[in-house]
Amino acid sequence: MDDHAAPSAAPPTFGFGTHPTKYRHWKLSFEGEIGRLTMSVRDEEPFKPGYVLKLNSYDLGVDLELADAVQRIRFKHPEVKTVVVTSDKDRAFCAGANIHMLASSTHPFKVNFCKFTNETRLSIEDASAKSGIRFLAAVNGACAGGGYELALACDEIVLIDDGSSTVSLPEVPLLAVLPGTGGLTRVVDKRKVRRDHADVFSTLAEGLKGKRAVEWRLVDAVVPRSKFGDVVAERARKLAAGAPPKQKVTAGAGVSLDDVAPTIDGDTLSYQYVTLKLDRAHRTAELTMRAPDAAPPADEAAYVAQGVALWHLRAFRELDDAILRLRFHYEDIGLVILKTRGDAAHVLAADRALTAHHDHWFVREVELLVARVLRRLDATAKSFFAVIDEGSCFAGSLLELALAADRSYMLEDPDEQVTVQASAVNGGAFPMAHGLTRTQVRFLANPSRADEALAAAAKAPLPAGGADKAGLVTLTADEIDFADEVRIACEERVSLSPDALTGMEQNLRYAGTESTETKIFGRLSAWQNWIFIRPNATGERGALTMYGKPERPHFDTRRT
Amino acid sequence: MDDHAAPSAAPPTFGFGTHPTKYRHWKLSFEGEIGRLTMSVRDEEPFKPGYVLKLNSYDLGVDLELADAVQRIRFKHPEVKTVVVTSDKDRAFCAGANIHMLASSTHPFKVNFCKFTNETRLSIEDASAKSGIRFLAAVNGACAGGGYELALACDEIVLIDDGSSTVSLPEVPLLAVLPGTGGLTRVVDKRKVRRDHADVFSTLAEGLKGKRAVEWRLVDAVVPRSKFGDVVAERARKLAAGAPPKQKVTAGAGVSLDDVAPTIDGDTLSYQYVTLKLDRAHRTAELTMRAPDAAPPADEAAYVAQGVALWHLRAFRELDDAILRLRFHYEDIGLVILKTRGDAAHVLAADRALTAHHDHWFVREVELLVARVLRRLDATAKSFFAVIDEGSCFAGSLLELALAADRSYMLEDPDEQVTVQASAVNGGAFPMAHGLTRTQVRFLANPSRADEALAAAAKAPLPAGGADKAGLVTLTADEIDFADEVRIACEERVSLSPDALTGMEQNLRYAGTESTETKIFGRLSAWQNWIFIRPNATGERGALTMYGKPERPHFDTRRT
Fold first, then answer.
1. Backbone angles phi, psi at A450, to 5 degrees
2. Cα B429 to chain centroid, rounded
């Protein structure tokens, strides 16, 4: 187990943005309403040296491109109604996450890698559910593990009938880990495979094909090679025909997403609207989001014409990038202090525009992106404290940061200049993973208070007293105590066990109902994390470690 | 970490049954409709030598008595409408699970201990929800960790206001583990404490008291010492007045539960209706349940008069005991083969009686107990295969075993003597932890098929062909192949990683919605299991290991 290894001091070396012109592993093409996302992994170009990406197996580099492609289709190609996900390798659709990459990764990297790939698959489902883009997995070869989990994220799965290609989840029998990228959950909860069939399937290393794969609901159709292309094309057209129309799509109206990357100066990462300052000695970071510099254009055409410069899009893409950097590059940072700066009136004006033009496909995509970024924050294994202090603008979309935080501290200033304010977006534009808003979760005990709190905070800016009364902030303190109170809380937080905090936060953040998404992060990932550090998987003689070696793995046989 | 230790070869030394006359740690008393369950833990009588049970801290011995008391109140004291849970220690309500016991236990024991204590607390909530027995935690002293989790399982919590007594969940700050006996889940999901308040509370080792404890919904009332007894008595009366009436309760009608314990002969454990045969070499066990020897009396009075001898009660109490033994004593057994023997007609007759007399409080309690035992089976970290072979009687209540199993194998015999059959109980008498029946979970893809399958199987016994068609069994084979097929499946199963199987099964068994109970076992326990084997908790310098020592624990600071 690598868990006892000293934290690596290596500097962060990679970014998260990419572009189709830079893709190494995917081909993206379009024909009218049909997009085609073709997996074409280059064996010899792993993200980190040390393994070969055989048979369309993937690593973080491959998945960053996939995540970019899905996002890009939504923004750049609003005309697309179906995306066919397939492979250009002979007899290999996708072999799943690269085993040697996994086996040679630290536990934190494994967990972060799986979380990211889960989010990518969830973004596919989000595109289907919210943007009406249907995904069709055209499984034209062997489809194993994470490969099948990718197919499971699609709306339909068509498997080639070539006598050999199967779908399989061989993680349990071959590697002693779980199909943790949503596999187990999606098999029984999304595709509603009978649990006993799922049990047989998930222990069958070679997988299933043919009639039984269809009967057991593992795939939607099995098609001979000779007809495969035609059937896929026909199904893609049908899916497109059934997709809901997008509003106000005009030819060539797609928005090209540019690269979002910070300027890094020592321990400060600067974006246009986001600044991330690391305090490595204290294991904290300060993440500041800034309001727009002005109100947006009132006219819809002018508002939409801002494209990638539109504040919500730019600012939350920057936040997304900062969160990923915090996860992957700054493992030792335990606590992120969320701050805001700027004119709340501009945030509220931006929110009004977002709400007013919500029926425009592009504006809707911006709103959906903000929601996904906030869900990424919810699922991040760091503590978040919002600090509502002088110069802050926790209004509307930025108030959502305080509601997403584990706690919020608000300054009681005598002039009542420090305030929070709500806007329409807090009422449902940015649902959490289980579909509830962050105010609904906050007021589960008394659901009507969620509306009351938002109404009070929408009517006028609330200073500390009012915000506390409305239940929107955790703790308030006056100018004499505020700085000390926050400092002590931060010091206490980072003194606690990082693991216990992760477990605690993941249990406290998602009160209320559960969804496939929260089951994946709450139940499946928690079990997967456990199994990842069990000697049976990652010990010296564990199955993941021993994979590909002639000796059999050794198991501690005690059932736990 | 004790995880690498060789499996202990020590023989099982303890049973699970007890009786009020044998209680060491609890006092049980009654005054009309009000029961009183007083925690009075004897410091010097731990379940295993090596630690002292200070301040009403508990171990398995204490919890076995509590579980027994809750069960016994339901069967022996149908007149009881409120149970006051309190302590007779000065200034100590309950300090939670004994830390030294936990720190000195193996990982499998810790997990099994927590699972059992969770089931005990869930049985309190089951008694409240299903039997109309309200529980009032009269917290008359310090109430920490598992002590507060016990209070959380009650319907109401009254905290004494004596200047010092608090409620607290100090697990994260003091021990680097989670309040895993439902604490985190119940705080936000049951008591609906605001998540930011829960965050502050769960990191505050000293806990909260007074007005803030009430405002934050952690307790229902805070009462000065001088009025504590009166207020508790008054609230207990009110709770009793609001409890739904029980049907057909007559004076002295309570049923005394006798001890259920097997005769152990080598590797065979024999009860009246249950036999458990261990095959240690193959890491499997065969658990056989037998049908009643005759149909039950038709007359309600005579049926009820059977008391503890009533087949459902006896047989499923035996199953419960066998499951607990499998969990605690036979950690190396990975697979349990479920079999049945006897006359299906007698099972169906017993089911008809259970259904017909369901409005009698005692019969209802029997039904609820059977449901709890089956839920205990669902939550057990062993694989279960049902083998439906010659002489079997998988009918009604016993069919539920096949539906609970991970898989079922059914013999196709030429004479079609091997059958399965449904009864009314399969339609909802024994819900799973999330409230769905096992047939509903099975047919999530097509809910009407659940009813169709049960209707077909209720009309007449279904031989293998019909059972397969109805979707009630996993695999069928004829006499030539059956034995080999089952043998190979068993061998394959036990060859897989025990950890991976546990994680897989816990993700496949509970498709569909989630409840507090499934969140506790699926989400909270999974995170707890992970944290229990992290060096930050149980490593040489982990917080649980170092508790009580002068040195500070050492944490790997990487957030995962």
1. -60, -45
2. 17
3-state DSSP call for residue B295?
coil
Range A313-343 burial, b when 16+ CB lie within 10 A, else e: bbbbbbbbbbbbbbbbbbbbbbbbbbbbbbb
Which residues on chain B are in Cβ contact (under 8 Å) with A508?
A: 184, 187-188, 195, 198-199, 202
Judge whether A185 is closer than 8 Å to chain B, CB to CB.
yes
Q: Which of residues 377-436 of B touch A (CB under 8 A)?
A: 381-382, 405-408
Residues 35-64 of B with CB under 8 A from A: none
Q: Do B406 and A199 touch (CB under 8 A)?
A: yes
Taking the C-alpha atoms of residue A440 and residue B355, their distance in angstroms, rounded to an integer, is 41
Nearest to A525 by CA among A234, A107, A54: A107
Tell me the sheet residues that pair with B28.
Answer: B37
**What's the pLDDT band for A12 if we cut at 50, 70, 90?**
low
Q: Does A540 touch chain B (CB under 8 A)?
A: no
Q: How far apart are CA A505 and CA B198, in angstroms?
A: 10
For chains A and B, CB pairs below 8 A equal 297
Is the CB of B249 inside 8 Å of chain A's CB atoms?
Answer: no
Q: Is the pLDDT of residue B12 over 90?
A: no
Q: Residue written as tokens 């509590």?
A: B66
Q: Is B223 on the interface with A (CB under 8 A)?
A: no
Q: Residue A102 phi/psi, 5° resolution? A: -60, -50
Q: What percent of chain A lies above the pLDDT cut of 70?
A: 98
**What is A258-311 written as a DSSP string?**
-----EEETTEEE-SSEEEEEETTTTEEEEEEE--SSPPPSSHHHHHHTGGGSH
C-alpha B262/C-alpha B276 separation (Å) is 9
**Integer angstrom CA distances of residue A446 from A443, B192, B193:** 5, 9, 10
pLDDT in tens, B80-94: 999 999 999 989 999
Contact list, B449 vs chain A (CB under 8 Å): none
A526/B531 touch (CB, cutoff 8 Å), yes or no: no
Name the 3-class secondary structure at B271. Answer: coil
Q: Supply the pTM of this predicted model.
A: 0.96
With contacts defined as CB-CB under 8 Å, which chain A residues touch B511? 188-189, 192, 195
Q: Which helix (H) or strand (E) holds B409?
A: strand B407-412
List chain B residues with CB under 8 Å of A524.
507
